[in-house]
Amino acid sequence: MVRAVDHAYSLIREGILTGRHTPGVRLGEAELAELTETSRTPVREALRQLEMEGLVEVLPHRGARVTAWTAADLEEIYDLRAMLEAFAADRAASRIGSEDTDRMTGLCELIEAAAGPGAGQDLDRVAELNAEFHGLVRAAAGSTRLVTMLNAVVQLPLVVRTFHRYSPDDLARSCAHHRELVAALRAGDGLWARSVMRSHVLAAKAVLLRAAASETESR
Amino acid sequence: MVRAVDHAYSLIREGILTGRHTPGVRLGEAELAELTETSRTPVREALRQLEMEGLVEVLPHRGARVTAWTAADLEEIYDLRAMLEAFAADRAASRIGSEDTDRMTGLCELIEAAAGPGAGQDLDRVAELNAEFHGLVRAAAGSTRLVTMLNAVVQLPLVVRTFHRYSPDDLARSCAHHRELVAALRAGDGLWARSVMRSHVLAAKAVLLRAAASETESR
DNA sequence: GCCGTTTAGATTGCGTGCAATCAGCGCCTG
DNA sequence: CAGGCGCTGATTGCACGCAATCTAAACGGC
């Protein structure tokens, strides 16, 4: 049996990421305790953790709310992420082993298959594989602090289901970045890897901002 | 009356920073509860928070220990900090107001007075003023996430009483960096500010690594 | 004598009760 | 009718108790 805290944490986090708890909605401790079938104590701890990761904000004596992101927040977070991921890629270039790069090549193929146009397209699977791909880079960077920080800024894009906003061209470019990143890592070239990763994240930021702009426009 | 959690948090944090709780020592919840004159509940929350900030590590069912830093950790943290502070300085350059830069100039003078050689030297006061100086930059960056991340990597140097390892030349260079940073911010030049801040932090890293090397050597 | 096993002690993790605090709202007053 | 104030209901924050789990030491077997 796992710890009740982790159980509550995953459940609440899942609820936010899948959109069950929409931004601004009030999350009572008692309510969440009932939902997770535990008591208020583990729920409290889970909420504190989610607060640190920026997914919820708790106001003293006013409870917890799911954080609502503005366009400026999005931009800021992606800039931060670009920097951190680039840093991780740089470190990974001099530490990663061939078994990891092999796996990454395999992931590239799987992603390209799932992202390819047609009936077989499965963008949620792309998101999943993409997460593993980037997870390998971060793990290879060998820095627990860096991983912690990245987790905080990486969870956000999941909330808005980033990949569903990618055009075919965007997807193709993303895959090309992945291939290039593997090449840079294999070559052990930190500067190259850093640069590619930076492009990769900033391209994702552009996609998101474009999508956000067209959304507000259409209202 | 402040919240018991904050009270416990500050007290434990203080204990670690002043060296009362040395790395590796086991911190029992009951023991800390007695020390902070509260119950175990707020102590638990404070420990979780300190864990996220990297000051302690709690192992499931095995309690909390003060984290022990290796030289590699130090290097990694300073590289991270250099990047994050540079990012903050960049953003601050286009947002900071003249009242803040004026205050920073005042702080420069105070720091130089406290750092000056002779009987009046007070390195702990330098550390304090330096913290305010950098705090202004981070606040001007206008990013709560960035501030959170920086807090995690900035607390560490306090543990090892960084400034007591600075040579007179190191101190002079540090003050020069401060002056230059204010100039860059006043000019609204993000790239300049970024570059100066990067130099500033990397210089600090060099001082610390040099000190660490001579320490291990002398044993 | 060394190692695996078991048991006792201690400590954490979790559940629940109670009191302090705050948000919302109706009432009173100017 | 608008603004301020006190009241009430609900929610959080904290303390404490109990059970599950782990550490460490003592014991027995090889």
Could you spell the SSE succession of chain A in H and E letters? HEHHEEHHHHHH
Q: Spans of chain A of 5+ residues with little confidence (pLDDT < 50)?
A: none
The count of helical stretches of chain A stands at 9
Oligomer description: homodimer
Mean pLDDT of chain A, to the nearest integer, reads 89
Distance between the termini of chain A: 48 Å
Based on CA atoms alone, the radius of gyration of chain A comes out at: 19 Å
Helix content of chain A: over 70%
Task: Provide an overview of this structure.
The structure is a homodimer of 219-residue chains. Chain A is mainly alpha-helical and 219 residues long. The first copy, chain A, is built from 9 helices and 3 strands, in the order αβααββαααααα. Chain A has helices at residues 4-17, 29-36, 40-52, 71-93, 98-115, 123-141, 144-159, 168-187, 190-217, and strands at residues 26-27, 56-59, 63-66. In chain A, strands 1-3-2 form a 3-stranded antiparallel β-sheet. In chain A, helix 1 packs across helix 3, helix 5 (98-115) runs antiparallel to helix 6 (123-141) and helix 8 (168-187) runs antiparallel to helix 9. The interface between A and B is medium-sized, with 22 and 22 residues.
